[in-house]
Amino acid sequence: MKVALFIPCYIDQFYPQVGIATLQLLEKLGCEVSFPLEQTCCGQPMANSGFASLSKGCDINFVKNFSGLDYIVAPSGSCVLHVKEHLKDEAHPEEAQKIRNNIYEFSEFLTDVLKVERINASFPYKVGIHNSCHGQRGLGLSSMTERMLPEFSKPEQLLAMVKGLQLSKPKRNDECCGFGGTFCVFEEAISVKMGKDRIAEHDENDVDYITGGDTSCLMHLEGILKRQGSKVKTIHIAEILNSSL
Predict the structure, then answer these.
(1) pLDDT tens digit string along 116-125?
(2) Model-level pTM?
(3) Domains in the chain, start-ordered, CATH in brackets?
């Protein structure tokens, strides 16, 4: 299976190990992975700030880099959702539509397309899971407490395959961490308070790590943890699934 890898800006600049882990795991699972070298931002920061019209150049470049591909995978639910809902190219509307249909968040691709039932990974730590809003409510990666439906979680399904991992969930399992893209800049006090509330619930479970599918949310939590002098670390789910003793 041929897969194109889309790596969001903040992963490329600050957390390259997440992109590397995603690539390595996809290859372990039998995928032939390509990485379009001229890819850039998907345009989400401009859209979040109310300037979606300024992301036209990002859209055109995205279509140029990822057109004609059957599967596009990214380790970021928020960027994937943005592409699915906002990607446009007036010169190539059919290609843009195909990309919107063929782009997948990392854990979604593993469970729904590759249908992974076994992962040879080991991570002997107590891990708390954070459900990011875009992935949960936008992409449907896990169930929501406000809807009376059977519980499910694609990330948890994958983490259950990891040897030695003890998974714990906070009491309010689907509450926002407060990052919210540019929200954490415009409303920093509220953002920080929301992040502290999330961390407090994970602290009650005495976790070693907090994981999730959006590095942006993990980055927000990581900053608060470091300022508190906490020993708890953050780690992307791709890093755990790619880990071994």
Answers:
(1) 999 999 999 9
(2) 0.94
(3) 2-113 (no CATH), 126-241 (3.40.50)
